[in-house]
Design goal:
Elements: E1 2-3, E2 6-8, E3 11-15, E4 20-23, H1 25-33, E5 40-41, H2 42-53, E6 62-67, E7 71-77, E8 80-81, H3 113-117, H4 119-130, H5 138-147, H6 152-176, E9 180-185, H7 191-204, E10 213-216, H8 223-228
Parallel strand pairs: 1-5, 6-9, 9-10
Antiparallel strand pairs: 2-3, 3-4, 6-7, 7-8
Helix pairs in contact: 4-5, 4-6, 6-7
Bound molecules: zinc ion.
């Protein structure tokens, strides 16, 4: 079973959106349904699937990032998913990328990566700039962005988004030194706009950080379900 939040030893920890510190989810489900279950974080599931069958299958050291409501992650070293003794780790979304005047995050800190680069953050900002309705369909939003490429505020924001994403990726590279980073979640739907820009930014800054391959997740929305059974 795949869940949002940090999962360790059958418990989900730090579920900021629900204000919960720890929930013994495995025990609750097992008692209710009388079956044995394993629970795992959704980004770790998707990462495992990408590592086994998708965009990361040819890399031993790799990082998967799920850019959606937040930013979840999975880290692989020498082909194995990193499983620290303490917590689940790879919570890249809560890496601070903006210390000065950072946006407050539900985790209690300021300037977390996901407050700038999650797809939730991206979509909210685009809606604000283009005055789009709150419930707009992502495909419709992509069309609106393409129609408004002359809008300077929007262009400036896309540039800023890409720069922030670059900062997060460069930090990960400096710590983990993966051979590849795969970007998944709903980021994939915006690839024509964001991925293209990101590759240009990486090229512009090639003298700053030696970046590995930055690839797009290839298994789509099914990755989480595939990974849940691995
Ligand atoms: Zn945070």
């Amino acid at each position: 079973m795949l869940v949002l939040g940090e999962v360790k030893d059958g418990k989900v920890k730090n579920i900021y959106n629900l204000g919960l510190k720890e929930l013994p989810l495995k025990q609750i489900i097992e008692e209710f349904y009388q079956v044995e279950v394993n629970i795992r974080n959704d980004a770790k599931c998707a990462g495992l699937a990408e590592k086994e069958y998708g965009s990361l299958q040819f890399y031993e050291d790799a990082v998967f990032l799920c850019l959606g409501t937040g930013i979840g992650g999975a880290t692989f070293l020498k082909g194995e998913l990193l499983k620290p003794h303490r917590n689940a780790g790879s919570e890249y979304g809560h890496m601070v990328i903006q210390k000065q005047d950072g946006i407050p995050c539900k985790c209690g800190r300021y300037g977390c990566f996901e407050k700038y680069c999650s797809m939730k953050a991206f979509k909210e900002k685009v809606k604000e700039i283009l005055a789009l309705p709150g419930n707009i369909d992502p495909r419709e939003m992509i069309e609106k962005i393409k129609e408004n490429r002359q809008n300077e505020v929007l262009e400036q924001y896309i540039k800023q988004y890409t720069e922030d994403l670059y900062i997060g990726l460069a930090n990960i590279v400096k710590i983990i030194e993966p051979q590849a980073i795969s970007l998944g979640g709903s980021f994939v739907y915006f690839k024509d706009i964001l991925y293209t820009h990101l590759l240009e930014t990486i090229e512009e800054k090639r003298n700053l950080v030696e970046m590995p391959k930055i690839v797009l997740a290839s298994l789509g929305n099914d990755a989480g379900m595939i990974g849940a059974v691995l």
